[in-house]
Amino acid sequence: MARALQRRLPTVSDEKPRSGCGLAAAGLGGFALGALSVLLIVWATLREPARDAVPAPGTASPATAAPAAPAAPKTQAALPPLAGHHGPEPVGVPPPAELARRDLLLPVPGMEREALSDNFHDLRGDRSHEALDIMAPRGTPVLAVDDGKIAKLFNSERGGLTIYQFDPTGTYTYYYAHLDRYAPGLKEGAAVRRAQVLGYVGTTGNAGEDSPHLHFAIFRLGPEKRWWEGTPINPFPLFR
């Protein structure tokens, strides 16, 4: 009977080796299966091509988006020039005979005609002067050179206080600039007479504080009769 029991019951020494081998085999199998799974996932990930982000409906991707339209350039309103500005005709045309016959009055009283200098073609920065500068003490009266009417009283950056006077025929503009002030009661549209006081010599605009003078110009109006635009005429020969 002892032999029978010995055959049915395994001994401790027989059971331990079998149990250790089974656990080791199971562990190795699980490890191999896990490692294989990880390798498969990595392999699949590396083989899948990268995908670009899909833009939302109605929008373009950064690579294909159309460039923004350039902003429209800002336009600046045209400012009236310091003197009658260039038309299509040549700059500085000689005074017409009709103007010479009018014997225009020198606009600054007490000024000797021989003391005038022809500075019509002198440069003022990057532009031609296109006028006659008449030096005089501040506050000296400025007189109308001819009959006519006041087309515009204007305060500009370069000319300061200015007067645009149309001649009696509406063909020419007489331009007075850098005034210290206007004569009392002077207004646009008013008729003026030769030798009437229009204002007073000053340094407004871009004139130097230590050089008061009258900037006087003449220009022939175009067909539109714009008070700020026309063909410059050299006034110097008219006062000689």
What can you see in these coordinates?
With 240 residues, this protein is α+β, with helices and mostly antiparallel strands. The chain has a domain of 129 residues: Distorted Sandwich (Glucose Permease (Domain IIA)), CATH 2.70.70. The protein contains three helices and eleven strands. The strands form two sheets. Strands 3, 4, 5, 6, 7, 8, 9, 10 and 11 form a nine-stranded antiparallel β-sheet that branches. Strands 1-2 form a two-stranded antiparallel sheet. A hairpin with an 8-residue loop joins strand 10 and strand 11. The longest helix is centred in the first third of the chain and has 36 residues. The termini are far apart.
Secondary-structure element order, as H and E? HHHEEEEEEEEEEE
- CATH homologous group name of the domain at 97-106 and 121-239: Glucose Permease (Domain IIA)
Helix content: 10-25%
Can you tell me the CATH architecture of the domain at 97-106 and 121-239? Distorted Sandwich
Note poorly predicted spans. 11-18, 48-90
- Distance, first to last CA: 162 Å
- Beta-strand portion reads 15-25%
Tally the helices.
Answer: 3
Radius of gyration using CA atoms only:
49 Å
> What is the fold named in CATH at topology level of the domain at 97-106 and 121-239?
Glucose Permease (Domain IIA)
Largest sheet: 9 strands, antiparallel
- State the secondary-structure class: alpha+beta
Assembly annotation: single chain
Average pLDDT: 76
- What overall geometry do the principal axes of the alpha carbons give? elongated
Number of strands: 11
Broad CATH class of the domain at 97-106 and 121-239: Mainly Beta
